[in-house]
Amino acid sequence: KTKVTAEGISYQGEDDDPQDLERVINVPARNKAIVEEFKAEEDKRDPKRERKTIVFAVTKKHAAQLTRFFNQVYNDPTETYAQVITTDTPDPTALIKKFKRQDRPVIAVSVGMLDTGFDAPVVENLVMVRPTKSAILYQQMRGRGARLSTKIGKTSFRIYDFAGNSEHFNDESYNPYEQPQVRFRRGPAVAEPAEEKEESFKQELLKRREIVQVTEGGPEDIDKIVERAVIEVGPEGEKVDVRDYKTEWEEDIKKWVQKADPLILKVKNNEALAEEEMRGLSEKLNSPEFYFNEANLRLAYDQPDGTLSEFIKVALGQYEFPTKEERVGKAFDAWIIQNNFEPAQVSLLRMIKNQYVAGAQIDVGIFNKPPFSQQGGLDRALKIFGAEKLKETLGQLSSQVLR
Q1: What is the rounded CA–CA span in Å between residue 170 and residue 16?
Q2: In the chain, count of helices (H) and strands (E)?
Q3: Which three-class secondary structure state does DSSP give residue 255?
Q4: Predicted model pTM
Q5: What is the pLDDT of residues 276-287, one digit of tens each?
Q6: φ, ψ for residue 134 (rounded to 5)?
């Protein structure tokens, strides 16, 4: 990692302003050295093969320069080994599908777009070049490598941290495996390099970068490295792994399609079901083995408003639910419009919403944890809302938005 001065960097919500960060982060010497160091480390790994990688950049300009260096260092004249994926990319959805399913691109360099709501089990490397003070964003970035993959035999993923995020969040204890999987190499603080000092700067960077190899088996209540959730189904409350439940559901629906079940085919063909037909379909699917019903499917897919028809279409690949972030964000924006909150109140509530999206439990105790504790904690929240108003607002937020 490199030493980055925070002088002149302002806050944007709970994190640093990206445009301010770009001014001190987007240095060609640093970017080239980061890419060269990444390749050098990857070349040491066995077996020798390409590993899907996500790079978190500060701005689109920063992402473009990193991508150019990746393609240069990997000697790819087609410029497809690494590609930028941002909201400005022509047809980003198609490029994301290529990244997930095809050989190229191997490296996706992004700004914000792949931080959350992006699921690609084949990702084996995360490269953090974007510093953050947001514990939520850090957790979300880490989560992009969390899914295991039997297809490639993936049981761990690696974080190349060139931004000091692991150290900032004290990741040796923040992610406290009994035998920590974090290796640090640190050197003395160095000033920002001049272009002509690129080689000496590279040596300092090699001393200071951090690599985190995250393996399966860390405490599940500490970090969402591998998500294992269960739901209770049936009259006896049998616990079923959510992933198994969803897999069985999707396979079951496809079997009904193969059998040419008329009601399933009507849903598949976007034909409306009569109330009696929907009741009959619900009874048919609610078998004693998995109890496929709307209530259980809502829990499994974390979609509190999902309908049986939507779950069937998801199983058939015809529909995608909004992500938790999208769903909660839409409800939050509508709720804010309906209420006459002051700007400082809106800012605080938005931070609470972001914490919830990342998995935090929302109660008054949240103000004693980062990032709130770093910005005045409960005292500041009481000053902004008042005790009664704070209690009332948190209740409304939980019941009407955070669901």
Answers
A1: 19
A2: 17, 11
A3: helix
A4: 0.48
A5: 999 888 888 887
A6: -90, 115
